[in-house]
Write a structure and sequence with these properties.
The protein has eleven helices and seven strands. With about 270 residues, the protein is mainly alpha-helical. The two termini are about 40 Å apart. Strands 5-7-6 form a three-stranded antiparallel β-sheet. Strands 1-2 form a two-stranded antiparallel ribbon. Strands 3-4 form a two-stranded parallel sheet. β6 and β7 form a beta hairpin.
Length: about 270
């Protein structure tokens, strides 16, 4: 915690007690706890990190391995080329590597931007607006708020980093807007997953969806097939669950590969 929160490391060894500064970024990758990302759970439940550590990352991106035939073919071809010796490492971008290294080194040592007055006002307004958006009631009277002072400081760091890439002495409103957009597309989106599935933005709807999943498992045994329409009507009449919730639960279970569609989508079969 200390290295990421205080940017220091305390050392007490062989009679020497000192505090060293940490000036490095942390880039971490993690697989989902359940093997596949579960849309019914939030990021903290899907990633086996303590929430106190997870909250110290400036940006959290959820990268999904979704099926895409064209992309899968491109990846497979690249792997085959690597193993057959056909792949070429002489790939050049708009800037060659040496020039890019020198630019990064120069920007790191010679440019130390700070927030401009306009950028600070814009960031303050965005911070208040995001918190206000999550001010509705939830299970405990409050919805989970994905932005706190810690994330506000993270957005300030990102804004200053974006300004550094342009060698600007100040972080302007444009840099703040880009940093806020990055935050919304990464950390805020990750915090909202599992709580804002389509048509499922209330605790009651979320509870009904969980109930529908449980009833589907009780009604459909492993390896058993049943018409989707029959299942929806059956659970609606016997358990009082709306057909819409049953279909959403089926969609989530199909995504997790617990269920699969058969006979052109008319039947559902439980795989595990």
């Amino acid at each position: 915690h200390e290295a990421m929160e205080q940017q220091t490391i305390s050392i007490a060894k062989a009679g020497i007690t000192t505090v060293l500064n940490t000036r490095t970024s942390v880039l971490a990758a993690a697989n989902p706890t359940f093997g596949r990302y579960d849309d019914m759970k939030n990021a903290v439940d899907n990633i086996d990190f303590q929430s106190t550590i997870l909250s110290r990352f400036d940006l959290i991106f959820i990268i999904r391995d979704e099926r895409n035939e064209a992309r899968d073919q491109r990846i497979a071809k690249h792997i085959m080329d690597l193993h057959s010796g056909l792949a070429s490492n002489d790939v050049e971008g708009e800037i060659d590597i040496e020039t890019l290294k020198r630019f990064v080194c120069f920007a790191r040592h010679k440019c130390s931007p700070r927030l401009s007055e306009g950028g600070a006002k814009r960031l303050q307004d965005e911070y208040i607006a995001i918190r206000q958006r999550y001010a509705g009631a939830g299970d405990d009277g409050q919805k989970a708020i994905p932005i706190t002072v810690r994330q506000l400081e993270a957005i300030i760091r990102i804004s200053e980093s974006l300004a550094r890439t342009t060698l600007s002495p100040v972080a302007t409103e444009r840099h703040v807007e880009e940093a806020v957009q990055l935050f919304k597309e990464s950390t805020e989106d990750a915090a909202s997953r599992g709580m804002q599935t389509e048509g499922m933005n209330s605790p009651e709807a979320f509870a009904e969806l969980n109930k529908a999943e449980k009833c589907i498992r009780e009604r459909v045994g492993i390896g058993m097939s049943i018409p989707e329409q029959t299942l929806c009507q059956d659970l609606s009449q016997r358990n009082g669950i709306s057909e819409a919730s049953v279909r959403k639960a089926l969609a989530v279970m199909i995504q997790r590969q617990e269920m699969e569609l058969r006979s052109q989508g008319r039947y559902v079969c439980r795989k595990r």
